[in-house]
Design goal:
Blueprint lengths: L16 E4 L3 H6 L6 E2 L5 H14 L1 H21 L11 E4 L5 H13 L4 E2 L3 H16 L5 E6 L5 H10 L3 E3 L1 H5 L17 H14 L6 E4 L4 E2 L2 E2 L2 H9 L3 E5 L2 H11 L7 H8 L3 H4 L1 H13 L2 H24 L7 E4 L5 H13 L2
Parallel strand pairs: 1-2, 1-3, 3-4, 5-7, 5-10, 6-7, 10-11
Antiparallel strand pairs: 8-9
Amino acid sequence: MSHNVPVRVADMGGFDTIIDARSPAEFALDHIPGAINCPSLDDEQRRIVGTLYVQTGAFEARRVGAAMVAQNIARHLREQFADRPAHWRPLVYCWRGGMRSGSLVTVMRLVGWDAQQLAGGYKAYRRHVVERLDALCPKLDLRVVCGATGSAKTRVLQALAAQGAQVLDLEALASHKGSLLGGVPGQPQPAQKHFDTCLAAELERFDLAQPVYVEAESARIGRLALPLPLVAQLRAAPRLIELRATLPVRLAYLLRDYGYLTEDRELLCNQLAPLKEHQGKETVQRWQAWATAGTFEPLLAELMAEHYDPLYERSQARHFAAWARRQPVDAPALDDAGIDDLARRVRALG
């Protein structure tokens, strides 16, 4: 068994399991991809120890905390780690690489496992994520896929990925469709830090010598902010590809793609409400009446013609340096076969 030397973030790859010893609430906000949560203190215990620390001092907090930690580690040994072989190599981390991960590592090493501790804990990993985003974003050779609402940009990206292209699907990472009606039912957006973590992990997988296809996004997707270096790289990208489909083709696609909106009409009405200041009260009330009645075709047609399309023209011209030099690709059909064909033609542009 090797010595217990704190492991750096760059050397995390050689371990069988990564264990997050922080509380479930901390783990839920963000964690190292693939890590399992084996808390040394649960949320309530952490609160109790913190209160003791403030009210009675460090010794009392440590004495009570140690008993809780010992109990939790005993449970992990009986349950989570019961079937792990003698040659198992876990890497353990907590918030700063302190007592919560240290105590778990100590007991594991007494058992005979070659357990190691991540130097600096989650804080060091978070710093690493920010550094990697800063380093990798400016190196991306982006192909930015643009197109008015309903031109199947996300589906084209998925088809490109299926055809072997490198694709950065920001909306999938953000659990959001990126527009006014973009929240995906039953799928809350991740915390900002976890979005950053997943994005950095995605970028690490790319071959930077090959192009990366990405949808034209604003600086925010729902309530999540894109890293500034990625926003800068998107805005300055020299290669913009615009999917062009007629209004009827886009409308037919939207009626299929946003089918879930028909299931919660009240939610749809609430999502339309913020448009009153731009579109006027009467227009939005008409749209809300259509939403309530389930009359989606005229609703989506007017939303595109009067809200999305004018907004699209203005925002793309303002945000993308190469907008005037974009390459158009016509989309006569947006069924499955049409989308596959569209992806092939996008890829053929190089």
